[in-house]
Specification:
14 strands, 7 helices, nine-stranded mixed β-sheet, Rossmann fold, alpha/beta, three-stranded antiparallel β-sheet, about 270 residues, globular
């Protein structure tokens, strides 16, 4: 397909950092036959003539958006996966490019014992507007990690700000590799996209969806109940995943997420 005929997929991110996620997502879109366009608060003017939208991962969603008080100070969370040295070594050995680039270019400031996460109100405002516009236009939309959370919040839902209570018996993994098993609702759109009802995913989050918003259905969970994916069954493609499929190009089911998004965006483009 020639570049000018590829559907344009907007990919949101922060003004500073987030380059690893942008490169990985852009590559996934190109591989799927789309044309990625980076959108940040300072590049808000790029959000025009889109045929599809990806709300990317990053900083925590501002708690004020779902009726919670703000954090008194940036949170520090323990990287529980540090005890799982075999997984960390495997990540570094098998995927050195993603592993190193993400740490060099990430928005988060990483430490030996934990990481600091700060909010991004400018991004919250931009992405909330884009989600509303995509909903009004019926554009195919994918939320990744923070993006899935913000879509849910924009629809009136809420989040678990801390997941410690879910991981009392098993550690909360922090890994780029697909080590976390999840169950997908068999009759869901996501199961159709993945071609399976069970799979393993990576994990880079510390928050997750609590109450669902309007027309939002939970379609994947961990064994402990933590929400791993949502969708709007009334839309051809409106899916939010808690993991990062852009960092799993070796998995055909994860590439399928981007392929289906681009396919739906191509149909949107045909109606322009």
């Amino acid at each position: 397909m020639t570049p000018h005929r590829r559907p344009v997929i907007g990919v949101t991110g922060p003004d500073h950092g987030g380059l690893a996620a942008w490169f990985a997502t852009a590559l996934a879109i190109l591989w799927a036959g789309g044309r990625p366009r980076r959108i940040t608060p300072k590049r808000a003017g790029q959000a025009h003539n889109l045929h599809g939208l990806i709300i990317g991962g990053g900083a925590d969603v501002s708690p004020e958006l779902y009726g919670e008080p703000p954090e008194p100070a940036p949170q520090e969370a323990v990287l529980r996966s540090s005890r799982h040295w075999t997984r960390r070594v495997a990540t570094a050995l098998l995927f050195p490019v993603f592993y190193l680039i993400r740490r060099l270019l990430s928005l988060h400031r990483m430490f030996i014992s934990g990481y600091t996460i700060t909010g991004d109100t400018d991004r919250d405002e931009l992405e909330s507007r884009l989600i509303e516009e995509a909903d009004n236009k019926g554009l195919p939309m994918l939320g990744i990690c923070r993006g899935a959370q913000l879509i849910n919040v924009q629809r009136g839902g809420s989040l678990h700000r801390d997941l410690k209570e879910f991981y009392m018996e098993t550690p909360q993994l922090t890994t780029l590799l697909p080590f976390k098993p999840i169950a997908v609702k068999p009759e869901s759109r996501l199961a159709s996209v993945l071609g399976r009802s069970r799979c393993r995913v990576n994990s880079l989050h510390r928050q997750a969806i609590s109450d669902t918003g309007d027309s939002i259905e939970i379609v994947a969970r961990e064994e402990n109940g933590v929400v791993q994916a949502i969708e709007d069954p009334e839309r051809p493609f409106m899916i939010g995943v808690q993991w990062h499929p852009e960092y799993l190009p070796q998995r055909p089911e994860q590439r399928g997420i981007f392929k289906t998004l681009v396919k739906c965006a191509r149909q949107t483009r045909a109606m322009d």
